Amino acid sequence: EINDQFVSGAQSSEYLKNFIKENLN
Predict the structure, then answer these.
(1) Cα–Cα distance between 3 and 19 in angstroms, integer?
(2) What element of type H or E holds 25?
C-alpha cells in the first residue's frame, strides 16, 4: 500500500539522519 511505503521511507530517512548525526559527533 502507498501509505506503508511512505511510512517506511519516512522511518528510513529518520534512521539515516540520526545515523549521520551520530557519526558527525
Answers:
(1) 24
(2) none
